Amino acid sequence: MRIAVLSDIHSNLVALDAVLAAAGAVDRVWQLGDVVGYGPDPDGVVDRLREVGAVGVRGNHDAAAVGRIDVDWFNADARRAIEWTRGHVRPDTRTWLADLPEIVVEAPFALVHGSFRDPVWEYVTQSSAARASLVHLTDLGARSGLFGHTHLPSLFRADGDGLEVDRPADGATVTLDDRPALMNPGSVGQPRDGIPEAAWLLLDTTARTVTWHRIAYDIAATQARMRAVGLPERLAARLDFGL
Ligand code: ZN
Predict the structure, then answer these.
(1) Per-block average pLDDT, block size 10, for the chain (243 residues)?
(2) CA angle 53-44-17, nearest 5°?
(3) 7 C-alpha vs ligand 1 centroid, how far in Å?
(4) Of 38, 51, 235, 243, which shows the fewest CB atoms inside 10 Å?
(5) C-alpha–C-alpha distance, residues 57 and 101, integer Å
(6) 161 C-alpha vs ligand 1 centroid, how far in Å?
């Protein structure tokens, strides 16, 4: 089975469509949260995910957009985007977002936004957080954890007493084995690793491989939509730099 794994789409429909086109015929689409926030097309992104039957989890921006998290936890630009999103999504979009679970387990895989220790909020960027998350992943009966939130393509894999840590580039492939691993596809809608192309990963459960991918999309089109609806200029500008 071939599964496209997408995270942190952030209402960027142009980027999402570029990724889905690049993925081509896949058996499933999994999403790792932050479907909305920052970008201009929350309804369009949720419609597309519903069309492809995406399975996935809730991110902190999704929780805030439906009123489950106070906006005071976010910086000023993020807060403005969340408030804009709250005021513009259709009721059925809101219901779809509100119904997203915090963790999905499809053994040997498990999906989460932040970490398996703290599903919505914890950023897994350091080895210590990765180690703790791997323990919780194993407790869930899973071996391969898929997470987002940091917007950075990453791999953390148990390796004896140590930990293999990598920032996989476009085209990097890893073969899964019995070692528990955490994998982050990077962000579709707002990459933060200095590369503006949309990031995603392809999971092949037959070959037991994971391949990280980047795809260029029409950034100017998303920026024009953001400016037209009055989202903060800084959020539009950063897309050019992947920061
Ligand atoms: Zn995010």
Answers:
(1) 98 98 98 98 98 98 93 91 96 98 97 97 94 95 97 95 95 96 98 97 97 98 98 97 93
(2) 70
(3) 8
(4) 51
(5) 5
(6) 31
